Input
Amino acid sequence: MKAVWYEKLGAADEVLTVGEMDTPEAGPGEVRVKLSASGVNPADVKRRGLGTYGMEYPRIIPNSDGAGIVDQIGEGVDAALLGQRVWLFNGQRGRAFGTAAEYITLDAWLVAPLPDDLSFAEGACLGIPCMTGHRNVFADGPVNGKTVLVTGGAGAVGHYAVQWARRGGATVITTVSSGEKAAHAVAGGAHHTVNYRDADAADQIMDLTGGAGVDRIIEVDLSANIELAARVIKPGSTISVYSSSGDPQGLFFRMALKNAVLRFMVLHSVPREAIDHARADIAAWLSEGDAIHTVAATFPLAACAQAHKFVETGNKLGTVVVEPDK
Output
């Protein structure tokens, strides 16, 4: 099969190789997916460039999300999955080979049905962004009637978090950095947007809550936003953190792997019951047909390095997708 891989950490142009690898075979409890789309998340480019979870394998295929068709099943797997359109997540978490390839094998429970009215590229937007958004919004219970602040509400995770919080009955405030991003957040369901670059951003948020503060914060960058969070969070409330640009002594990554509270989290160590809850909610939501899945750009497999570089610019709206069958 055609695939992209790296054997050392570094810049995308320098370490990503495009070539041929053996096509994997589905083992017991696994499915093989013929991939049509591979989602590129910020965590994927950080892992390739910085080794945020360590360089565990001599050769790694990047990217953890994707969508395609199940073309082979292993022993013990429901035969009904064969030929099914699916989206998948955590393809490169705790294993060497991700979705930047024509095929991937993985545990059958890591795939979910992809409705016929969604493209494979839209399916590749789900995975880590949609599941992470769901977990951060609902990990501490229902949000109906609460005020939720989503920092970075135009980002891939943030935009899903906005949609989940609005769907859950919350009043949603989000921070953005431009008018274009504000419009994108509002399209996802945000009631209010605040430009985090404004010197009085915290005051604006407090005014929007009548001085009460917010009940929960879904946090994209704890290091950058800690002062804002401290100003606007209600006493006794929760900040659910899924990323941080600064990480002294590896605090974020060590605590995220434990899904600790002040709620640090990373999807691949979320408890199975929470994963199943998210999958059920996503299936119900997709069946309603009102979810927004934003594809920022698409690249052919051979241009995977360019896709990674685009994610690193921070200028995308939505998920960058690599198409292994092109």
Observations:
- The mean pLDDT is 93.
